[in-house]
Amino acid sequence: MTGAAEGKAVVGPPLWLLAELTYRCPLQCPYCSNPLDFANGEQELSTEQWLSVLRQGRELGAAQLGFSGGEPLVRPDLPELIAEARKLGYYTNLITSGLGLTDAKVDAFADAGLDHIQVSFQASDPELNNAVAGSRKAFEQKLAMAEAVKAAGYPMVLNFVIHRHNIHQMVDIIDLCERLGADYVELATCQYYGWAFKNREGLMPSLAQLTRAEAEVNEARTRLQAAGSAMQLIFVTPDYYEERPKACMNGWGSLFLTVAPDGTALPCHSARLLPIDFPQVQSTSLREIWYDSPGFNHYRGDSWMPEPCRSCDEKGKDFGGCRCQAYLLTGNADNADPVCGKSPHHDRILAARRAADHATAGLEDLVYRNVQNSRLFFRS
Ligand code: FES
């Protein structure tokens, strides 16, 4: 079947393929979206298997390809995968911490045909950056690599995950980006999945912090525009301060196809936490996974929706919100995303906001994303 069953959504191709090459990472960010039990020892796909995934994805119609992780640079076959992706005609994006990157690698990736590199930072100063990243040399390395990326002719795309411990740095973060000559800056307030959900109380900013940060971003935009700067600031507000849910992944199984390091195919990077069986690329073709697998069809269309989503006139816009968030907050992924003011579980969001007003956790109270902590989770 290459369409949809009767009464279900019409299924187009997966335009966006995310290759999560590995869960290995030299950093320990406490907001990582990888699963808590990432260190459970599953084998990573081989180079040949990844090449096959890329070819099948392109045949299906995927146009954008993201390489992420963990830290994708730990895979020695990354240049080979980039070269194949270019040959196949993908627009390719590398999402990296910058750790493990060198000037030579930046050039080699450009030669192989990489279109875009996004370097993530944790803060505007080395102390906080390195404390959050759990690495003493991270900041220095990120600065050097951001510059190398620009020097190699890529647009400079920087990403800062914003939380209660760095949100006061908004002005300094924007200054740093200007000094570096960034073209695009993503100021992405933490979303609460994976390790970030585990650490939510220690990470979530208060409404007052958020309001101030947003005003600072708006002021900076006005100033940059007046000065003729082309630097774009993209401020992503957290779901927990919204009254309507986001159209997560533009709808389940609608555009996005993620392949996890062990070959599990997912409609979003967090979905493996759901009590749903997802197929493996080692045993099922990508076409069958996308069009026919029960996992990818589970939340397509709207026939699965309970109230209040089923009769909501916004369901075609937000698709009931995020299934992973519904599961994390209510224990049932069928429920409306509690972010929605119409959800009977919206009180959980309101309680989290109230908790953020009084939170006192320091950086030392966060659970850092590392193999040791991950092993604790899969044993329990
Ligand atoms: Fe999985 Fe939203 S993150 S559906």
TrEMBL record:
SMART domains: Elp3 (SM00729). Keywords: 4Fe-4S, Iron, Iron-sulfur, Metal-binding, Oxidoreductase, PQQ biosynthesis, S-adenosyl-L-methionine. Its cofactor is [4Fe-4S] cluster. Binds 1 [4Fe-4S] cluster. The cluster is coordinated with 3 cysteines and an exchangeable S-adenosyl-L-methionine. It holds the Pfam family SPASM. It comes from the Bacteria. [4Fe-4S] cluster binds at residues 25, 29, 32. Pathway: Cofactor biosynthesis; pyrroloquinoline quinone biosynthesis. Interacts with PqqD. The interaction is necessary for activity of PqqE. Belongs to the radical SAM superfamily. PqqE family. This is PqqA peptide cyclase. It comes from Marinobacter qingdaonensis. The lineage of its organism: Bacteria, Pseudomonadati, Pseudomonadota, Gammaproteobacteria, Pseudomonadales.
